[in-house]
Amino acid sequence: MRSSVVNLDTIEFFSRFLKDFPQGQTQYCERFSSDPARWNLYPNLNYAGLFYAIGNLLEVFPLITTGQTAIGEAVLDTLKALMMFLDRDTLEQLPLLLASNIGVLPNELDKQIVHLLADTVLPFAINEETFIKLSVPGVLMLVLQQAHDPSLHTWIMEGTMNCSPNIYEDLVQVIARGTSESRVAAANLLLHYWPFPNPHIIHRKIIQYKVHAWQRIPCQSTTCADKGPSVKSCYDPVICADVADTSPPVFLCRRCAENVIAERKAPMRILTQPMQASSATCQNKVS
């Protein structure tokens, strides 16, 4: 319980700082950069030390007997707030740390972990300045193996597609070197997203695995009554703290996003929605 209090205090510290984040510098919240100007915006604190302390806490997490869900949520919220303050070497460890704790943290947090990976961490961290692209096969293998909800498999796949090129190569690596559970899921996802143009090339047998659609998280605005699916995201730290009491990004439904744009003139990003199943046969009626 003491760890939970420490984590909540940490979140409160980051929230206070983010509310005073300089205007016009939100690009540092959207994508990792090694630009020295980025570090001048942050207090000079031991962010890596906090990251490793959280890692040590997660190693003994199964020994915690009470309040696991609350502590797990606090840890994930802290990691989200901490992400943009990390140096490159520490940031590169974050995706695998999150993915490896699926099955360790309570099952009801699996969706939050995948959301954090697919919609926040990987889009922020994958670029030419980091080597996180090399971690993608490991992240996919861990999610496909440990997450028992198939909709989380398509979520991590489509989220990674948005920020990582040639994701099919990472799937092939999982098929070649992954665990038996992850291989089955990876093979079916590969054929789902990149189907053979001629369905008669192979005869697929009936298998237990089935691809499931995923859904965007509900609107995070604290004043939203409908809690419809999120369609836009905002990276302005002040707006994120005011609208949803969270660190960037905040995910909003259409109505709340329009209200924020009208009142704050804040830039928004359109979120890609779950993909429709692709056809394995040509849909051109003339051919």
Automatic annotation (TrEMBL):
Q: At the top level of its lineage, which domain of life is listed?
A: Eukaryota
Q: What is this protein called?
A: Uncharacterized protein
One Pfam entry name: UNC-79
Which organism is this entry from? Haemonchus placei (Barber's pole worm)
List the InterPro entries: UNC79 (IPR024855)
